[in-house]
Write a structure and sequence with these properties.
Domain R3H: 632-700
Number of helices: 16
Domain PHD-type: 11-68
Distance between the termini: 91 Å
Largest sheet: 3 strands, antiparallel
Strand content: 5-15%
Oligomer: single chain
Number of strands: 21
Strand order of the largest sheet: 19-21-20
GO molecular function: DNA-binding transcription factor activity, RNA polymerase II-specific; RNA polymerase II transcription regulatory region sequence-specific DNA binding; transferase activity; zinc ion binding
Domain RING-type: 14-66
Family: Belongs to the NFX1 family.
Structural class: alpha+beta
Length: 758
């Protein structure tokens, strides 16, 4: 009814073109879902690649129900299919012929045809009534034709079960009756065992002697009446006694007929218990031991019964065939011989490569031919975050299978990659302007990016040279570069001394370059002329800058040495200057030299403390104390860790113990190095900035804990300071921030460029 109303009022839309289906337009209706489409639209859809079924052989799929059809519709027919190109009649349903439908109802066991006018959609249920019997067939009922429900009565089924002996006791039911659930007792062929089985099952079969084999020795009396059957429980009658005179024709070893022995005077056998005459020859029966190369035989004289144990030996090879050993054949017990052969293995390890090509097999007495690797691959995948969990293999690992179900966006959030997002996917490219915070206020010209650092600002701006000589246009980013340059005036005054220029990283670029500050240029001129007179005329500030520049130069050379490069220092300092720069020995130095000579004369170990020097208390430098006051918690934690390390190595059985600190800045590393000297601990710095860290190692007998820690020394010094004369002075001191515990004033960072350990 809904289809008829929408087609009549022209409100039904074609799913292919999304246009309204007109009354006079040729259409096609799917016989599975009954959707109506334009005939031309369904033709185009059927020829398109998107409509083809997945297997490629089932034809094209309906756009609505995905039901596959082989033939493509070519003509315009009514809904019942009897009339081609039906004409529209105002009094009839659009696209129908106006006659009886006459189609067979699908999916129903109904013999009647549809008796309403040609219509869209499925045919209605059949209105006729028929008589149907119940499932057991005992009662009848009048029901609607095509009714799918089954009829059940309240009577017992009573049909014969599969066993053919009993009847079904269930109430009227659908389908076949269940198998008979009664049990019957069966006996084995030899009659010694019983078991219960379901009635009517295959196990109920019996051949008259029994129904199953119990797998025990039969034990029934043979026809002779003297011997028992030695076969496993079996159907059919037992065989004849194997010792009957009419059955035995040869001697026990089988080499001589009994008729010949009778001619030689042997007594003729009458019953099965009479002994079988012996021929007197060697038995020669093959034993179960031996090998394929050599078969062992019985060496006893012709006899009845089992043969005696074998006295020969056999070669047993290991499973890989590399070694062999001689072993007894266990008296003919071949299964013991096989066990010995299987368990014998050599100690040779397999040197072949495994299937991965990376690891060796390394198995003892290996017999494997494929040498599959059982280790986990463990290599990093293309995402760089996860590792391969597959068994070790050749070639490249598969792509990371992990997937994120969160949206992946650029920094500003404009560009989005919707989930699922494979692991390792880079953020999407964004054409919007970068929205990250910048150091300058100039306009931003670069796009949004995923890197943390923005590219340098390229905005041009005006800037005075540091000597206030000229104004030039420079790039914004060049204002923060750590290089200085000469203006034209200073270049002429300095000359062409390239050594001085290289020490100061000078870049002579002409009249428009920013110039060196006026406080630095006299230093450069003095070094260029190599005149000590000009150096002596420098101010204290300029001399301090000269010392810093020299320290930076030497620190650069030390870095080159650490990287393995050779450094020429003859141009930095002369031999005469080296002699003049040596420090004179003071009283402490002389005392140490004297103690060292006495220790050598008395053969005293350097690690011992004969003169009670170490017990007199540690000496902390003023610079170390000053740094400790700035970060007292850090120093306290470092000393606590060092004390625990020294106590652990002195009390334990190991001669050395190490501890690795996390990466930290240069000032904190210098504090660790100085404290390590006080505790007698070795300290070494590793890695490059910003991941440079310190590793300390305590040695038993050499590392000791000082009597006074640095934190305790600082506490005593704070307590020994005189109190301010007036309360308001103390308050003013706190407010001004000059107290020892208050935050220190911001000053120029002190860099120890001569810390060789760091």
């Amino acid at each position: 009814g809904s289809l008829i109303e929408q087609l009549t009022t022209e409100k039904y839309e074609c799913m292919v073109c999304c246009e309204v289906v007109r009354i006079v337009a040729p259409v096609w209706s799917c016989q599975n879902c009954y959707h109506v489409f334009h005939l031309n639209c369904i033709k185009k859809w059927a020829r398109s690649p998107a409509s083809q079924a997945e297997d490629g052989n089932s034809g094209w799929r309906c756009p609505a129900c995905q039901n596959a059809s082989v033939q493509v519709p070519k003509t315009y027919t009514c809904f019942c299919g009897k009339v081609h190109n039906p004409e529209w009649n105002r009094n009839e349903i659009p696209h129908s012929c106006g006659e009886l439908c006459g189609k067979k109802r699908q999916g129903l066991d109904c013999p009647h045809l549809c008796n309403i006018l040609c219509h869209p959609g499925p045919c209605p249920s059949c209105p006729a009534f028929v008589t149907k019997t119940c499932e057991c067939g005992q009662t009848s009922h009048s029901v609607r034709c095509g009714q799918s429900t089954k009829i059940h009565c309240s009577n017992v089924c009573g049909n014969t079960l599969n066993c053919g002996k009993h009847s079904c006791t269930q109430v009227c039911h659908a389908g076949k009756c269940s198998p008979c659930q009664l049990t019957v007792q069966q006996v084995c062929y030899c009659g010694s065992n019983f078991k219960e089985v379901l009635c009517g099952s295959k196990e109920e079969f019996s051949d008259g002697f029994g129904s199953f084999s119990c797998q025990n020795i039969c034990g029934k009396k043979l026809n002779c009446g003297r011997h028992n059957c030695k076969q496993v429980c079996h159907p059919q009658p037992c065989q004849l006694c194997p010792r009957l005179p009419q059955v035995v024709y040869r001697c026990p070893c089988g080499q001589t007929p009994l008729s010949k022995l009778l001619e030689l005077g042997c007594v003729e056998r009458k019953i099965c218990t009479d002994p079988i005459p012996s021929c007197g020859k060697t038995c020669g029966k093959p034993l179960s031991c031996g090998s394929y190369e050599f078969i062992h035989t019985c060496e006893s004289l012709c006899h009845e019964g089992d043969c005696r144990p074998c006295s020969h030996t056999s070669n047993i090879y290991c499973r890989c065939g590399f070694k062999k050993k001689v072993s007894l054949t266990f008296g003919g017990l071949f299964f013991l011989f096989l066990i010995a052969a299987i368990t014998f293995m050599c100690d040779k390890r397999c040197n072949k490569k495994r299937s991965c090509g990376r690891h060796k097999c390394n198995e003892i007495c290996c017999v494997d031919t494929e040498h599959k690797c059982s280790l986990v691959c463990g290599r990093k995948l293309n995402c760089g975050l996860h590792r391969c969990e597959e068994p070790c293999h050749r070639g490249s690992c598969q792509t990371c299978w992990q997937t994120s179900f969160d949206e992946l966006t650029c920094y500003c959030g404009e560009s989005v990659i919707y989930p699922p997002v494979p692991c390792g996917t880079q953020p999407p490219e964004c054409k919007k302007t970068c929205t990250r915070p910048h150091d300058c206020d100039h306009p931003v010209y670069h796009s949004c990016h995923s890197e943390e650092k923005c590219p340098p600002c390229t905005y041009l701006t005006q800037k005075w040279c540091m000597g206030k000589h000229e104004v030039t246009m420079v790039v914004c980013q060049s204002l923060t570069l750590p290089y200085v340059e000469l203006c034209s005036t200073q270049t002429e005054q300095l000359g062409t001394d390239e050594f001085v220029k290289s020490r100061f990283r000078l870049l002579t670029v002409g009249d428009c370059s920013p110039c060196v500050p006026c406080c630095l240029f006299p230093i450069m001129r003095a070094l260029a002329s190599k005149s000590w007179g000009l150096i002596c005329k420098l101010s204290p500030t300029q001399l301090h800058l000269l010392q810093q520049i020299a320290a930076i130069s030497i620190a650069t050379k030390l870095t080159d040495l650490q990287l393995g490069d050779s450094v020429e220092i003859s141009r930095l300092i002369t031999k005469k200057e080296m002699k003049q720069a040596r420090l004179q020995c003071d009283e402490e130095c002389l005392a140490l030299q004297r103690n060292r000579r006495l220790a050598e004369a008395l053969e005293i170990d350097d690690n011992s403390d004969p003169f009670n020097i170490r017990s007199s208390g540690p000496k902390y430098s003023d610079l170390l104390k000053e740094d400790a006051r700035k970060d007292i918690k850090f120093v306290s934690d470092i000393e606590k860790e060092m004390r625990m390390l020294v106590e652990a190595v002195n009390k334990g059985k190991h001669t050395k113990k190490s501890h690795c600190y996390p990466p930290m800045n240069r000032d904190h590393r210098r504090i660790i190095h100085e404290l390590a000297q006080v505790y007698g601990i070795e300290s070494v710095s590793y890695d490059n900035e910003p991941k440079r860290n310190v590793v300390i190692t305590a040695v038993k007998g050499k590392s000791v804990c000082p009597s006074n820690t640095l934190t305790s020394v600082l506490d005593k010094e704070m307590q020994s300071r005189p109190a301010p004369p007036f309360p308001h002075c103390k308050q003013a001191d706190k407010s001004s921030g000059n107290s020892g515990l208050s935050k220190p004033l911001k000053e120029e960072p002190v860099i120890d460029y001569f810390d060789v350990q760091d």
